[in-house]
Amino acid sequence: MLNALQPRIIAIIAFLAVVAGVSMTVGWFGYLSALDQLRQRGQSDLALASDRLTGEFGRYRELAVLMADHPVVAAKAAGDDADVTALLRRITDKTGSLDVLVVARSGIELASASGSGAQNHQRQPYFERALDGALGHYHLLHDRYGQRTFLFAAPIFSPEGPVNGAVIVVVDVDAVEALWRGDRPTVFFTDELGVSFISNRSELVFMVRESSRAIHTASAEFAPDILKPFLEYEALDRRGMQLWSVQGQRYVPRTALHLSLPLPVIQMTGEALLDVAPAKLIARLQAGVTAAICLAFGALLFLATERRRTLAQANVKLESAVHSRTAELSDINEELRHEVVERIATEAQLKKAQSDLVQAGKLSALGQMSAGISHELNQPLMAIRSYAENAETFLERGNVDVAGQNLGRITELARRMGRIIRNLRAFSKQENHGMTDVDLCAVVEAVIEISHSRAQSEGVGLIWSPPEGALMVRGGEVRLQQVVLNLLSNAMDAMTGQDNAKEVEITVERNGTRVDLGVCDSGPGLVEPDRIFDPFYSTKQLTPDGQGHDGMGLGLSISYGLVQSFGGDITGHNRETGGAVFTMTLDAAVVEEDAA
Ligand code: ADP
């Protein structure tokens, strides 16, 4: 059993391994493709965020340039005593900038919208650049405003050409960030020193990369205590894409695709961290679906194979069952053939035994009747002798008439003797088994003739009123005689030694296509009517005084067989008025007038 299961278990394990391999491969490629899509989307998101930032800053940059051209501001920078504070405040309010400053060439602040603590901007990089006639910009955590700021410094040119001073627009970075705080993806902008200065996640602001910390500290632009170490992450390369596995951050995805975009306009680099969880989910789904399809397919395949295997096994069983059954049937057939042969032989033996028995029965009946027959023949013989002697005497006396009468009687008696002898010869003859049309009345009369002397000697009255004309039936003459003789002999046997009147009535009657023959007696009747046709059933015994006959119990069973062979029937039962009645029914012969 286990050995039969082993290959299947190995096949299932191998199949599962293949399914795992295929679904992992599908999942991997799905993951890479999802990452690629994520990268494309992330790049456009990052570009969008960068554009928004630079666009927002661009407004302030233009404001600085425009303000530098303002005549009042230019006059102020040229040393005019005019009050520009009100103008600067209006501008600040309208543009949403944090502050607008007018700075003299010396770096001294001439006016500001906020009016708070004047500051010397000398040697500041943005101011230096403005004095050089270019647009300077810078970002810093301003002590004066207490927050992150982005500065644009535009040079104020004198009508003669040289730079008289600068207009500095201070941008509130928090206000710019407020527009996209919390948006996806996570974005932060780092300066060239590696400090993340702007982000849509406030937790990521002021992170500094380890490698650049020393430089940054040296520059002393930010107080070291507000700086934070950069995100702890492990970078992985996936087909040119950088994946960061980030530790211990609540606001940053655990595994993120890192994208960066340089922004030379503001000298920063935009960086985005995109959550790869959806890509992983897609990949897992694809792998799961592939595995499910493969497993479903495998299960169907497995079921089909199992079904085929079961069918094949059932087939083998069936074939072997059919084989063994066929062998059994062949054996039975062979036995049957033997039995048929044996039966045919037995049947032949039985037929022979039957015909021997029939013959024996006839001879036994003749034996029983021998005394009666010899009496029957002796009587006319004696009469013939007397008639012959008397005829001789009458002839001597010349009485020819009486002698002639005697001779006539002699002829009649001789005819009668001849008839008796013919009947006996016919009865003792062995008849072949065919069937002919037989006159049932003639059969009865022949039997009466044979039994006449016995009936007479035993005082049995034979009642026989034949119908007019012949009554033809299908059968064998001698065999029918035997049956009728047997019925008559049994009736006379039954009445042996009986005191009351001994009578046997024989009747024949046509009933449609059948002819009934009845033999009824005034004897004691049947002891066991159900058994009378059983072979060897006999109640006959020789009485101690030598009266009666010893029975073989075959007469009726032979008669039954003979009548059945003619297609007829024989029954026997007791009469209500006493005595037994036997009825033999035979097919009527189809005589010409019937046919007509
Ligand atoms: P057997 O004459 O040798 O006994 P049968 O087969 O001819 O054998 O008869 C079987 C038995 O049927 C008889 O022994 C007898 O008991 C019974 N039997 C047959 N005919 C009569 C009858 N007419 N009256 C009473 N009994 C009969």
UniProtKB/TrEMBL annotation:
Subcellular localization(s) per the UniProt record: Cell inner membrane
Keywords per UniProt: ATP-binding, Cell inner membrane, Cell membrane, Kinase, Membrane, Nucleotide-binding, Phosphoprotein, Transferase, Transmembrane, Transmembrane helix, Two-component regulatory system
Catalyzed reactions per annotation: ATP + protein L-histidine = ADP + protein N-phospho-L-histidine
Membrane-traversing stretches: none
GO cellular component, one term: plasma membrane
Source organism, top-level taxon: Bacteria
UniProt membrane topology term: Multi-pass membrane protein
The UniProt record lists the keyword Nucleotide-binding: yes
GO MF entry, a single one: phosphorelay sensor kinase activity
Predominant localisation class: membrane
Family annotation (SMART domains): HATPase_c, HisKA
InterPro entries: HATPase_C_sf, HATPase_dom, His_kinase_dom, HisK_dim/P_dom, HisK_dim/P_sf, Sensor-like_sf, Sig_transdc_His_kin-like_C, Sig_transdc_His_kinase_DctB
Coiled-coil region(s): none
UniProt-listed Enzyme Commission number(s): 2.7.13.3
Function: Member of the two-component regulatory system DctB/DctD involved in the transport of C4-dicarboxylates. DctB functions as a membrane-associated protein kinase that phosphorylates DctD in response to environmental signals.
Protein name stated in the entry: C4-dicarboxylate transport sensor protein DctB
Organism: Octadecabacter temperatus
Gene designation per UniProt: dctB_2
